[in-house]
Write a structure and sequence with these properties.
By secondary structure, the chain is an all-beta fold. About 0% of the residues lie in helices and about 55% in strands. It has no helices and 11 strands. Strands 2, 4, 5, 6, 9, 10 and 11 form a 7-stranded mixed β-sheet that branches. A 4-stranded antiparallel β-sheet has the order 1-3-8-7, with no helix packed on it.
Amino acid sequence: QVQLRESGGGQVQAGGSLRLACAAFGKSFRPTSVAWYRQIPGEKRQLVAGISATTNLGDDSAANYADFVEGRFTVSRDRAKNTVYLQMDNLKPEDTAMYYCYQDGFADGNYYKRWGQGTQVTVLP
């Protein structure tokens, strides 16, 4: 099985920082695209940041970010640790949401799309 596990969420004051992590577990899972989404109750899930494969599987394109990120967040991937990170700085109360990790890729010839269970981020005013 291929599973994702998020961590790093919590409660911070406005202006604070959090670093989210998303570890992938699988026998031979090799992620292609990775992304972070967030969801506010009553709203649809929104893309926060992502890294997409380019011409070769395993190669990354430039990271893309939602407009509301405004340069405050950074997504990165550590292939050796099979982990994706989202560094969030200068957090605002509007960033309060459930944050979800998404990854897709191959394992033993099979293609997988996986979501983590989410990690709550709460930013106090």
